[in-house]
Amino acid sequence: MSQEFNIGATVKIIALPPYLKTADPMPMLRPPTLLEIGAEGIIIDRKPGNYWAVKFDRSSFLLEDRYLEVVVS
Question: How does strand 29-30 pair with strand 40-47?
Answer without folding.
Answer: unpaired
